[in-house]
């Protein structure tokens, strides 16, 4: 029944006046939402350009590709697109490899040479007199990657009539590290429990595992380390390998290899040997046999990730052997099968009196050249530990004969967990673009890890994963942007974080420019806001002890000094900051001279690293014209103000996206504002006990006393095994 015309106009008026309530979304679909293209003109153009998918052959990867294209096009074009075997009319999407598809082979695509093993070509062409779009690659996985990129063009409303895209990943290893325990808790995980349902594996495979693989493949991630670096040897038992194998079988069609962490003492704990000495032939034999067993089950097993002689983990030094001895015994075991060892350089000891920031370099630089070719050294972005901001790790560029993996933390252990909106794209970008000067100016860190600087062509990026069983995967909608940005940058480290943020927003929320532009600006400023309200001007490691939730600049004493805050900020009556110049720990000398000279000079050092390298007097005037104390306070207050602006921006976007996700972000921003104030007030009041200077009158007063902040006890904080 139709309403009479006047009523119809009235209804239409109502619809236009209030933004139509968009259907609730829980975030499960991530950036693979495939909603119908809303612009009618564009939809018509897309429909004309894509009338049929032409694909030959059948294999798990081709099936995954076909399913994704079918699903994606059904959503985006709001109609089914037939999948067939011939391009008889205009509008074919021709998909495949030259070896698997005669149609693709007949095109003789010269660009394919540049696509490598995992990349692809997307090209608008005339094929046998018909207009077509070709998605071609040398391998099936390359085809899958190309299909995802093609869908992304539609999702972000790009023109597709004259495409000429050739892509290949710049980094070889693009890996997520899961700090997942076998009991499904996740170390530093803020998004629920582990995705791996070990107890029900290998029988039950949650469909989530497939969706996890799809999401990773869509951004080109090609490896996943299933287990925590604080490893449990149980994961290498025959029983658990069967479980890992089941996961590997799910991930394989998506071009994702499985890796496991290896507990160095596994030969004792599960092998019944008396030692794990890497020079002992029985130990070497045990690792070889273990690797053989793994490869029988998982023929494309990626290899081992190892944390050794760090934070209480066993390692080769327990037997007087070097890290190279340790890495090599494992490398020899997996090498014949094509596997690698990712050996972590996150090594420091409280028994060593040296500045913790210099220990990894001191330990590993002399070992350059003594690792097997299939060992990669995995180095955190900065020399301490995933802080809101660190200068780049001096090992980058300093071990030219050793391929390096850059380890980044996607889970935000030190950046407000999953509740604070902190887009890590700018942090990742800052690291990748750091100039090591290893071979003169322009020796960017990204060129170290893609292997081009030293010409060995090997290296990669590992991201400590932030996914879990939360329905939205990462604990909040915006945390998924960090997973996405990690993958995109591992594929192409020259991408800009703004470009990535924009693609992600369009795919995750929609293409409305009145939403995308403000939300993007909010994302891009968010990391600096967090640095400001947590650890400005090069401060670091000021968080609460153990669980790391909230501020704890006063943390001192306890088990080890290098786990306290006072060790790092060194505040006293004169000033604040860690002197890492020649008059202090001289860690600055670990950088190449051009860098060391800048960082080592308090007048030249970029202000964001000032207190990382220098102990500066409270009344010292900085380039801004303010004293250090005034500058420090200004940053802490600016951080809170920035969060308040984020809140205002977000409020202005109400109604432009679905209510469910809007609300959660709004609520989390309220929490973030409260916690930013907590950080600011606790830190400013605490540092004031040394500076004995006033908080300038223009600023709002802290709401509580320092004693009250110090008395805060957070219980059952997620991501930490420590209980109250
Ligand atoms: C620290 C985390 C700890 C990890 C360690 C690591 O607090 O849980 O085990 O890094 O990377 O930041 O090994």
Shape: globular
H/I helix tally? 22
Q: What is the count of β-strands? A: 16
How much of the sequence is in beta strands? Answer: 5-15%
Taking the alpha carbons of the first and last residues, their distance comes to 65 Å
Share of helix among residues? Answer: 25-40%
How do the strands line up in the largest sheet? 7-8-9-10-11-12-13-14
Bound molecules: beta-D-glucopyranuronic acid
Q: How would you describe what is shown here?
A:
- It is a single chain.
- By secondary structure, the chain is of the alpha/beta class.
- Helices cover 37% and strands 10% of the residues.
- It has 22 helices and 16 strands.
- It has an 8-stranded parallel beta barrel. Strands 2-1-3-5-4-6 form a 6-stranded mixed sheet.
- Helix 3 packs parallel to helix 5 and helix 9 packs across helix 10.
- The longest helix has 33 residues.
- About 1% of the residues have low confidence.
- The structure holds beta-D-glucopyranuronic acid.
- The site of beta-D-glucopyranuronic acid has 10 residues, from loops.
Descriptive keywords:
8-stranded parallel barrel, about 725 residues, globular, binds beta-D-glucopyranuronic acid, alpha/beta, 6-stranded mixed beta sheet
């Amino acid at each position: 029944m139709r309403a009479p015309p006047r009523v119809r106009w009235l209804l239409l008026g109502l619809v236009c006046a209030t933004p139509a309530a968009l259907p609730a979304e829980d975030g499960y679909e991530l950036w693979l939402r495939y909603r119908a293209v809303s612009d009618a003109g564009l939809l018509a153009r897309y429909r004309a350009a894509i009338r049929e998918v032409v694909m030959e052959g059948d294999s798990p990867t081709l099936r995954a590709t076909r399913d994704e294209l079918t699903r994606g096009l059904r959503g985006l074009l709001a109609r089914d697109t037939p999948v067939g075997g011939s391009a008889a009319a205009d509008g074919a999407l021709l998909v495949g490899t030259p070896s698997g598809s005669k149609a693709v082979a007949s095109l003789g695509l010269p660009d394919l040479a540049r696509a490598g093993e995992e990349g692809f070509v997307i090209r608008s062409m005339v094929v046998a007199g018909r207009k077509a779009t070709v998605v071609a690659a040398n391998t099936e996985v390359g085809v899958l990657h190309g299909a995802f990129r093609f869908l992304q063009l539609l999702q972000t409303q790009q023109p597709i009539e004259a495409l000429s895209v050739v892509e290949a990943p710049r980094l070889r290893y693009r890996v997520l590290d899961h700090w997942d325990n076998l009991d499904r808790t996740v170390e530093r995980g803020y998004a629920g429990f582990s995705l791996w349902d070990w107890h029900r594996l290998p029988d039950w495979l949650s469909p989530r595992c497939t969706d996890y693989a799809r999401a990773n493949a869509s951004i080109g991630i090609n490896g996943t380390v299933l287990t925590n670096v604080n490893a449990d040897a149980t994961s290498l038992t025959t029983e658990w390998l069967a479980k890992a194998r089941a996961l590997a079988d799910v991930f394989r069609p998506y071009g994702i290899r499985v890796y496991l962490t290896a507990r160095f003492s596994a030969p004792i704990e599960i092998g019944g040997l008396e030692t794990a000495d890497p020079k002992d032939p029985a130990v070497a034999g045990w690792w070889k046999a273990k690797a053989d067993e793994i490869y029988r089950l998982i023929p494309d097993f990626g290899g081992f990730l190892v944390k050794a002689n760090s934070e209480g983990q066993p390692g080769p030094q327990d037997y007087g052997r070097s890290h190279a001895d340790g890495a090599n015994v494992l490398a020899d075991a997996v090498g014949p099968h094509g596997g690698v060892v990712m050996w972590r350089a996150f090594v420091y000891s409280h028994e060593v009196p040296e500045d913790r920031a210099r220990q990894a370099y001191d330990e590993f630089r002399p070992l350059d050249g003594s690792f097997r070719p299939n060992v990669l050294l995995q180095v955190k972005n900065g020399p301490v530990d995933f802080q809101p901001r660190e200068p780049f790790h001096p090992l980058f560029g300093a071990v030219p004969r050793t391929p390096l993996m850059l380890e980044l933390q996607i889970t935000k252990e030190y950046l407000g967990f999953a509740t604070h909106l902190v887009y890590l794209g700018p942090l990742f970008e800052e690291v990748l673009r750091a100039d090591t000067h290893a071979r003169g100016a322009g020796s960017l860190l990204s060129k170290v890890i893609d292997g081009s600087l030293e010409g060995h062509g090997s290296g990669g990026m590992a991201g400590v994963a932030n996914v879990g069983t939360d329905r939205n995967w990462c604990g909040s909608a915006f945390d998924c942007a960090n997973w996405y940005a990690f993958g995109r940058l591992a594929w192409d480290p020259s991408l800009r974080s703004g470009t990535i943020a924009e693609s992600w927003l369009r795919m995750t929320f929609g293409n409305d420019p009145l939403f995308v532009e403000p939300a993007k600006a909010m994302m891009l400023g968010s990391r600096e806001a967090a640095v400001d309200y947590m650890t400005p001007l090069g401060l670091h490691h000021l968080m609460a002890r153990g669980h790391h939730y909230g501020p704890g600049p006063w943390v001192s004493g306890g088990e080890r000094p290098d786990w306290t805050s006072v060790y790092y900020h060194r505040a006293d009556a004169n000033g604040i900051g860690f002197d890492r110049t020649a008059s202090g720990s001289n860690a600055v000398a670990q950088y190449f001279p051009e860098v060391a000279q800048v960082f080592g000079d308090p007048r030249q050092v970029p202000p964001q690293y000032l207190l990382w390298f220098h102990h500066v007097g409270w009344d010292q005037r900085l380039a801004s014209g303010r004293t250090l104390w005034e500058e420090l306070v200004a940053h802490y207050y600016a951080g809170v103000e920035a969060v308040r602006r984020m809140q205002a921006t977000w409020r202005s976007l109400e109604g432009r996206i679905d209510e469910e996700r809007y609300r959660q972000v709004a609520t989390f921003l309220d929490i973030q504002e409260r916690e930013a104030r907590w950080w600011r007030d606790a830190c400013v009041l605490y540092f004031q006990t040394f500076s004995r200077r006033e908080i300038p009158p223009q600023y709002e007063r802290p709401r509580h006393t320092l004693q009250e902040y110090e008395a805060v006890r957070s219980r059952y904080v997620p991501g930490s095994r420590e209980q109250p």
